[in-house]
Design goal:
Helix content: 25-40%
Largest sheet: 7 strands, mixed
Structural class: alpha/beta
Number of helices: 6
Bound molecules: S-adenosyl-L-homocysteine
Number of strands: 9
Oligomer: single chain
Radius of gyration: 17 Å
CATH superfamily of the domain at 60-222: Vaccinia Virus protein VP39
Length: 233
């Protein structure tokens, strides 16, 4: 029961997808698990059919409601940071090479980043403030038989307190500052990846919790839509 063309043809075929993977590899994405996930998730079902021929270009695209699906390179870089994070700190609770189990994602959008993450971690908890986007993302993940994701229609700056602590937190909207609630909901040793900055360009930051202290690292400049307060249908 699906209106999605999961296989893809022509500009959405597996061959076109593999070209994207090669492009990300030459752009510096080295984690094969992430590249495999990008190869296996059909990005064309996460965007409007009229734009499907652009699905495997390495660019952000509009998804309605003034929002965008993230650029594949950024999805890959953020996912790689989540998988690698928490292992660099001395007090890591995770054995080397193991994936985080409980990941909190803020800004479901199209659900593409959610789907990529879900193939690599045990459970994704994804929060979106726009109800219509959330509903469509849920349908797409169902069509892909991805079942290890729970969604919530809420203001993600508040995190998901009932389910904290999380082994990793990923924010896919630009924040002027890191919301306190997210910091509080991280497990010890957990990585938080978040674009920080008030303007059009933000810095992708990686924070790692170490007890009450946070180690921070700037990854690269990025352009995300803003993290906004409240919800809408
Ligand atoms: N990773 C997504 C990117 C979506 S764009 C994708 O690849 O499709 C960022 C998303 O964050 C938008 O859908 C926007 O509505 C959402 N967002 C912005 N502020 C939010 C908030 N406070 N809580 C939850 N979602 C938020």
């Amino acid at each position: 029961m699906t209106d999605f063309n999961l296989q893809g043809i022509g500009m959405t075929s597996r061959r076109t997808r593999n070209r994207l993977v090669e492009r990300l590899r030459s752009a510096g994405i080295a984690d094969e698990r992430v590249l495999d996930a990008i190869a296996s998730v059909p990005r064309h079902i996460f965007i409007d059919e009229a734009l499907a021929h652009l699905a495997y270009e390495d660019s952000a695209l509009p998804i309605g409601h003034s929002q965008t699906i993230s650029q594949p390179y950024i999805v890959a870089a953020m996912t790689a940071a989540i998988l690698a994070g928490g292992r660099r700190s001395g007090r890591t609770p995770r054995p080397s090479g193991a994936s985080p189990r409980k990941v909190l994602e803020i800004g479901t959008g199209s659900g593409y980043q959610t789907a990529v993450l879900a193939t690599l971690v045990e459970t994704v908890y994804s929060v979106e403030r726009i109800g219509a986007l959330l509903g469509r993302a849920r349908e797409r993940l169902q069509a892909l038989s991805i079942r290890n994701v729970s969604f919530k229609h809420a203001d993600g700056s508040l995190g998901w307190p009932e389910l904290a602590p999380f082994d990793a937190v990923l924010v896919t909207a630009g924040a002027s500052h890191v919301p306190d609630a997210l910091m509080e909901q991280m497990a010890d040793g957990a990585p938080l990846v978040i674009p920080v900055g008030g303007g059009d360009v933000q810095q992708l930051m990686l924070f790692e919790r170490n007890g009450d202290a946070w180690r921070q690292q700037t990854l690269e400049d990025v352009r995300f839509v803003p993290l906004l307060r409240g919800t809408r249908s």
